[in-house]
Task: structure prediction
Amino acid sequence: MTLNGLDNASIDKDYIQSLIQSILDNNHSLPQKRKIRVYPDRLNFSCPICGDSEKVASKKRGNLYFKNMMYICFNEETCSRSFTKLLDTFNIQMDIEKKIQMYQYIENNIQFQSNDEITIKSLDKLFDVNDLCEFFKRDKTRNLTNLQPLVRNSGVDMYVRNVRNIKFTRDIYEGVYHFNSKWSQPVMVFLNRMGDNVISMQIRNLLNGDKRYFKIMDFSYIYDMMYPDGDLDDQERISYNKLSHFFNIFNVDFTRDVNLFEGYIDSLSIPNSIGQIGINTDIGFLLNEDGISLRFIYDNDKAGFNKSQKMLKDGHKVFLWNKFFIDLLKKHKGNKKELAKKLKEEIKDFNKLSQKFKKPLYEIFNFDQYFSDDNLDKIYFMDLDNLLGMI
Result:
């Protein structure tokens, strides 16, 4: 039995099956063990590494899953590996165009669920937070040194708590970033982690405007620095890097509404939030995830409004800054036009908003009422002054 050509014009399953068949033909002597069972989501066959069952020749406990091209053996866990590593195990060369096609497919179809057994099993290369602190301790050639949890009353700690008004600081460390041998600055280091394991980091200095600096250390960047002789293959890089671009993705509850912010700092403002690395981050794999309700919060600026309008038009829930501001203005007893001007000029994101209050924002406001997927609410993308005149 074979499959029909391409899946969404992105992966040639017949070709993949032919490579598996070649491995089975060369490594199993029994005809029963050379047969492949084809399912919509996977290929099922007798494991060519451990040999599968010695008692029952028809047992097939090896599975190649199309959704992430991971090979999982349920007879011997050590046999499990990426498809490209499975090929390397048996010295099978993949056509370069087919390989590129497969990598593109994986990148476009990565799925993530917190209870996905296969996904969790494949995350065995995350970095222990203590190992990271030891690695980024003194060597200035690695740019980052003195990586450690926030030190009470240090410059970074005071900035995080008193200037940025960030209450939840578990995933913020501090360090020193060396731009060159003579110039360095204290930095916040945002750890994107699952428990004590880290997949990526964002480094951010304590300055604003033109002097603001941030650097993303995604999974591959850290891995290649820590393990220059490591055996990470391209297939693994794609999956790890994709996840590493979403701050706090391992700690949200996907059975509830998940808030997607434009940046890392803003995502710490309200619970169950993910921070992206920018307005143009590829979020396709999350949008394609069944059963996930996403809400998008972009910055209160022209680019953020344009992105919000597009997402609203596409049927996604977006945060309506002006609807929120109108409610604030209705309750304001002073000069409403003056306040409207300050809101437009000073409140560019949730962190700027949080700096105006002492309590966590979610304890002050019910933000649920300011999300909408109704295209009629595009009226809230009018200029705030014009909306104010309609009150």
